[in-house]
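Sample intake sheet
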Amino acid sequence: MDSKTPIENLYSIEPALSSSSRRSNFSSKSKSLGGNSIREVNFVDLGPKPVKYGSRGAESETYSMSQREINDEDARLVQINDPVKTNERFEFAGNSIRTGKYSILTFLPRNLFEQFHRVAYVYFLVIAVLNQLPQLAVFGRFASILPLAFVLLVTAVKDAYEDYRRHRADNIENNRPASVLVNHEFQQKKWKDIQVGEIIKIHANETIPCDMVLLSTCDPTGVAYVQTINLDGESNLKTRYAKQETLLKIPEKENVSGVIKCEKPNRNIYGFQANMEVDGKRVSLGPSNIILRGCELKNTTWAVGVAVYAGRETKAMLNNSGAPSKRSRLETHMNLEIIFLSLFLTALCTVVSVCAAVWLRRHRDELDYLPFYRRKDFSEDEEENYNYYGWGLEILFTFLMSVIVFQIMIPISLYISMELVRVGQAYFMIRDTQMYDEASNSRFQCRALNINEDLGQIKYIFSDKTGTLTENKMEFQCASIWGVDYNGGKVSSQDQKDGYFVQVDGKVLRPKMVVKTDPELLQFARSGKETKEGSHIHDFFLALAACNTIVPLIVDTPDPTLKLIDYQGESPDEQALVYAAAAYGFMLIERTSGHIVIDIQGERQRFNVLGLHEFDSDRKRMSVILGLPNKSVKAFVKGADTTMFSVIDRSSNTSIIRATEAHLHSYSSIGLRTLVIGMRELSTSEFEEWHSAFEVASTALMGRASLLRKVASNVESNLCILGASGIEDKLQGGVPEAIESLRTAGIKVWVLTGDKQETAISIGYSSKLLTNKMTQIIVNNNSKESCRKSLEDAIIMSKKLTTMSGTTNDTGRTLGAASLTPVALIIDGTSLVYILDSELEERLFELASNCSVVLCCRVAPLQKAGIVALVKKRTSDMTLAIGDGANDVSMIQMADVGVGISGQEGRQAVMASDFAMGQFRFLVTLLLVHGHWNYQRMGYMILYNFYRNAVFVLVLFWYVLFTCFTLTTAINEWSSVLYSVIYTSVPTIVVGILDKDLSRRTLLKYPQLYGAGHREECYNKTLFWITMIDTVWQSAVVFYIPLLAYWRSTIDASSIGDLWTLAVVILVNLHLAMDVIRWNWITHAAIWGSIIATFICVIIIDAVPTLVGYWAIFHIARTGLFWLCLLAIIVTALIPRFVVKVLYQFYTPCDVQIAREAEKFQAEIQSAAVEVEMNPILDHPRP
């Protein structure tokens, strides 16, 4: 390029984008403008290396790749327009994708292998196999397999249907058409047939079929706009560029050839490292030159590119791994009880086998002729022995047969019942209108079905601020320009002749968003730059309009003479600043890769974009180099105050800088987000020096990212301060009330934000997270030793406050620190760099445990995950993380429960979450209502399943003791099989889905009721043991009352077995009915219907002549004694439980029982103004 007139000739330079800027998960987000310099590594395959949450050495793959040249071992070579030669050495993946897990051949073995990861399934398989052996055949061979087969079948059908849907979606995706260059013309080709190296043409609104390097576009400057909503959920348009060397090549008319040397496929969707040789020239390629599979081409007529990654090697498919699997805390605790039941089962079998051994030894001389055990077979002339394996083997077989008979002690039906209950609970959560967000038209999403009950035991909430507590809809509020605070009265731009607009071809162009303006500032802006004030204001708003990556889009309106300009960008902050500039008469009209057009007070001016250094997490600022119409060159810079003041020339305009700092402090104190604006005019020599360095850095094959950062740092120095901006990010509706309710419920709320400290504290007060009664402990340090000292001093102070406030009140009760002198810890990300991953973690946790509120400022994404890990490692309390942006993903996945907000920053947080919703305030309903219900239901259901099966097993056990330990069963084998499948399963599931111990209104009115989950009132070891004791009593009653009643009768075993079957089914269903709180017709149908269904099944089984016990029920049920026994069993078995419940609720009621009584007598309580004292909420974590 001819460089005789460098400023004029470089107007068409395309901006080389730093591969480490904007491409990290958090760099260009609005909240990241204040983030700490810690890199995000969410999408990087780090291998076995541990993640360092606080270390500055946590480098991203993008950065590391930029430090070395791509050698042949670490690269792939793509021959442009020559797929045959490209795939000659290594056959790269085709573009066909497959997200399905199974094929027709692999479904059965793979699905069974996955299901048998559950140890309980292996247990029942072993039982079924043992029952097939002749020596151990207690039940019929088919009957013993039926329960396990049923559970496996249901799960397999569900998995098969889900996989069928995946295969169907894959088939649709693979057969979509694309325009591929074949023999110098573009022809239609299916996506699955596209190969690496082929040239593809994409038209407007079409989806990109593979990862492609842009070669040319319809735009003469090579710019293309893509929407990445299918990739990362963000709806704002992104700009991508074709290189100048390939921009003018027309594939249909000339042969396009060359070689692309790029990195191997990886998961980093924000990074790309490559170089391209074309026409003998080598040029570098970065993230701005590649468009990824799944993106859509927008506002661009066509774009041509070459495929570099296809099919499963595309970045979208490499990231298609889903969120990590999480297990319910309740299910984990349940496994301990299952282990105990296994030991109890072993004990029962041991008792039976030992008793059988003693009996065999005592009667060894009578075994040849003893009825029911005869060893000798006299049916033939020659006397023979029946199958008798000796005393030792007979004991072993007795033990194994006992395991088979008592097998349902481990409730196999519990697993499938839990899955069905969770599905039902999820349905009602999704349909809850109180968690429906009208603004975004989004319902609650339940993305993980296996942790519903964990919502009822949350102790810590880790929340992002921007977009989670706030709306993330930025609105320009005020500005400090050249030391003057323009924060006076605001008037809507609609009151000023509908605000600023321009005339273009007889049509009116007006910004889409209305911005309130300051009258005085507006007057100065209109006065031009002749005055000193006007000149500074001109440069300030020119910086706001130019220093960004905003794309202006023209939107039609019903009025054909009126067009609206919609500013699309990746950052809501940038959008707010550009709209503000437009309201003051600096309207961005057009943007290409080489220039921008700004209408300044009615005069359209073109500015050449000579270079663009985007925001990154190290510099925390961005800059643009503009060629002005008067041929001068200026660098406009904006960024966080912490980094901007270090590059501003403080030798001049000291008073202006001090005034600006004061204004920034006042803006932050009222919760505004702040940015500092600076400028530097470049001389010809300075520009040439920057330009040569910029060219070298942007085309470097190694160390490109660091070189670009160095070039940016050089030009972003000795700046003249222009001013600062204040942007308001309003709280979402209901946030203060929600936080207050959550804290009343005993939940600790920690806020982790990238904003500066003053802004975060201001939002803390407005959201009621912080109160005037709190003592604030602030930790801001720049070294490890200073952090250590600050933490030690803070711990001493918090303990003193605890001691001082540990006084007794009038009632004699000792009050904890949180009740009188709550403490709030405020710590910044720089301090966390030295604390996390070091021995100081323990001190930080000790301090945080004494605090009611923790507010972390200037934290990076990995530090958010590190804070969550800090708590998870040191306490058994449940954690929940909630956020809305890509930089919250690591935190969401680290917590026990992750909640994503469907906000302004895309859907990456939603896609990585377990639950998703539209507003933070919905968290109150989710936890205090649905979480409480789900925990109470699931806890009761697990205990009830243990009880239900244990009663049945113990009845069989008592019978064995009266039949010489021979493992014969009076209960029909089919009744044993159907007991857990039909007789008693449906009521459990219905109650687990529909029952409510308290109404929604009561749970929301008294948040303290959520403490039942913290105290594990619905499922604990005490309840388990009480349930087991009650089970032993009820089983003894069921067995011995009929035994004594028919002791001297001639009734056969099958008849009394039917009585036991019906008695157990009626008993366990009435036991359940005693505990049901909310009755409805479905509950009635399930409970009473199950009893009726049991009678019908027993009658049908006894009516089959080929089965044992033919007509038995008809013989026994005709007598009055049968019905009298049923009544006696029910009354005798349930009286102790009823008495204990009455005494417990009368003398030591819990909060839930008190609230339930209050619901029953609501009218009286309201009129009498009765106040009920709840149990105290424990504020310290459980060890």
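Comment: The chain has a mean pLDDT of 82. The first helix runs from residue 6 to 9.
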